[in-house]
Amino acid sequence: MDTSRLNLIGQSERFLAAFRMIERLATCEATVLIEGEIGTGKEVAARAIHYLGGRRNGPFTPINCGAMPDSLFENELFGHVRGAFTDARDTSGGLIANADGGTLFLDEVEVLSPKGQVALLRFLQDGTYRPLGGKRLVTANVRVIGASNVSLRELVARGEFRADLMYRLAVMPLVLPPLRAREGDVSLLAHHFLARFNAQYRTSKRLSPASLAALEAHTWPGNVRELENVLHREVLLCDGETIELADRLPPSAAPGGPGRGRVAFERGFRAAKASCVADFERRFVCWALEQSGGNVSAAARRAGKERRTFARLVKKYAVDRDRLAG
Question: Can you give the pTM of this predicted structure?
């Protein structure tokens, strides 16, 4: 399946594993909890689950729990009847009512207050709720997908989140990998965003090899969202055709800085070694092609490799020869 139509871009093993899980989650109706760092694309994943599933023709209703004052959470979620409080001049359906027949996406559930957690738990238990000021229960046909920037299990262990609510939310868990763990995806995403912004602003900017190396070396604490913002900024600020951004990224992102060659030792010796080898191969192939104007035969000679072997490396790392042809 072409994942780009769902705004999901990647080809790394970690990305593809997450996407396969998204496809499986789309086939069921169970509550889902998506966990991952800021900027990893939790709402994008939730939308993919919705639009790949049987509720695709129903509404997708997002709510950011972190932006919702505790005093308004129940009213926003459940709605109210006329006269429920001073300013309630009319009956108003809440977000659950708006999401009926579709999906309710609760982002940043980790920040819910104890009162908000109780209110949400009550609804998740049987799919019923009572609008503020109402006298009868209302049943909603809604699938709930929650998302958290931190591990809810760790919050439960610290007594900061209800264990019963976590279990209700995490019937089907999905953990999105950080960008730094998605080998090869930085380059792919960078060119995707660059093409999009070039089309948007009718420009023809391209990344220099040094810029691409700087992007790949960065640890990306803000993940995909940060990368997108960096490319957006550079397209707008670059006066020429070639983007040179190595000196405008944090020091850890510059070639030779602390971010370059970052090794995930926790993955084990063999996996960490393989990651370093793959990183070197990809960079060397890009360098050789750039020095040879995108000519594979010339790049292979420069690298001291047989053409067939070098071409396999170009294909393996999905290197865009046209971009490196200069």
Answer: 0.74
